[in-house]
Amino acid sequence: MPQIRFPQTKNQIVILSCVAVFLWLFSCTPNSPKSLPLAELKRSKESIVVSAHPLASEAGKLMLEKGGNAVDAAVATAFAISVVEPFSAGIGGGGFLLLGTPPENSETQQYKIRALDFRERAPKAATRNMYLNEKGEVEKRASLDGHLAVGVPGTVAGLYNIHKSLGKLPWKELLKPAIRYARDGFELRDDFVSKLEKRLEVINKNPAARDIFTKNGQAYEPGDLLIQTDQAQTLETIAENPQSFYTGKIAQAIATDMAKAGGLITLEDLQNYTPIWREPICGKFRQAKVCAMPPPSSGGVHLLQILNIVGETNLQQWGRENADTIHLLTEAMRVAYADRSLHLGDPDFLEVPVKELTSLSYAQQRRQEISLTKVRRSTEVQPVSPEVLRSNILESPDTTHLTVVDQERNVISMTYTINGSFGAGVVAAGTGILLNNEMDDFAAAPEAPNLYGLVGDEANAIAPRKTPLSSMTPTIVTDNGRLIMATGSPGGSTIITTVLQVILNVLEYKMNVAEAVSAPRFHHQWLPDKLILETGGFGEATVNELKQRGHNVVMQRGWGNANVVFQDESGMLEAAADPRGEGEAMGTGQ
Ligand code: GLY
After folding, report:
1. CATH topology for 47-101+114-185+227-389+398-443+465-579?
2. Ligand 1 nearest atom to the CA of residue 490, by list position
3. Quick one: CA torsion of 355, 358, 361, 363, rounded to 10 degrees?
4. Does position 395 have pLDDT exceeding 90, yes or no?
């Protein structure tokens, strides 16, 4: 047995102290970032669920333990999020999911991946200029606060649809944990309270929201118990009959509330709501097949566009927190978000040039424009014109994400939202449903930035029944018949670049999933022209080098709340929730 020998003489102590000081100094050289918190890594050979709240993950895990599959777990987790994290997503909002099912023969066949769009839609009475005043100026808060900001919610229809397609357990069973959390209450955590404090003024203007989310107009405190009796009743009604949200008494309550408070959503809008199955957007990065959400999300298009621009560049050799790497990726992000502003919108209303924007030849052309030593201002980088794009036919803050992989290796990667924190800050009276402000994701006017500073044009103009453009990027990565990873994140405009970096961290930098979701992030979205670096994540030398190249560097506290599941060669599942949030991964059979 080796013996540990402690320093005994003064000399030994002095020498050891010097070594310690030297090591400390070395670890604090200008290019050595302070360490950010590291996520917890969970493993399971069987099945795993990861979401933004432990109680929601617990709900999913319970379904897996009852013999349910990934769909059952995802539905239970999503309903639980609606109760324990109502500020981010819920039955008053909408979203997207990717469903992956394994082939019978993983040697010869591909994973089957389908995309479900259950995003909010504009009400029939919505008009192009509905957020402009008499002078033609955008009334900014009108698309963010109150009933006029609300899009027709799709969550209940989406979850029921996915349940019908592959769910194993009875529908009613899936809502039980959420109903329990709503009826018995749960303890509020820091994240909930800090978001509540920021939206308190708006919430206090709506009596139904005020009754639920405040103590006589005052914010709750961490550790307080939140009981949501109305939402519990609504969830019980949905458990009996999901259609009641669209045609029954819940629909009636929403429409009545809207009519009273100047909102646009009618019973007809709710009756007409249907989720849409879409083809995911898939492309190759190295050996892996990366599939993500197609329009009306911009997530998949621009994730692949940026990966294509990276192409064969050996980023691993360059290093992850290296100025060249950050520069190249930033310039690629700048191009992608410029194109987003002109070309992306609801594909049921316009032709979105998906094939062209994700083509390798277009990526090569854009790559050639990027200088590795010189920054281009965003005013110098324009979206590609439709004509040029056509000649290239030679060959996409709040919200939440959850990922589930089951024993058969079915996988759900789902991002859903009520848009801004606490959505529109209004609850449909008597239902407990906190309603979204997704209408803000439309371009209220050309060049008018939304909540996330994103600008848009004609392609994302408001029209009746149209779907607002999104950045949500639920993603599944496979290698032929084998699942490699599934991931996604909230974060508005930053979603695409967060997902991009998590994927690169795993595929290119060979990080485990805990490291991959924890690693420092950066973001650029064309306009505003700034490179945002995560505070505490990058060394001084790297930051200075980027500034010298001309980047408008802005330091910001961490953003996003990604989660990820990875499957290694032996079939072991590994999952982690972003340490910037309060989520948790939970595996079965441990
Ligand atoms: N509401 C944020 C997004 O869909 O991108």
Report:
1. Glutamine Phosphoribosylpyrophosphate, subunit 1, domain 1 (3.60.20)
2. 2
3. 160
4. no
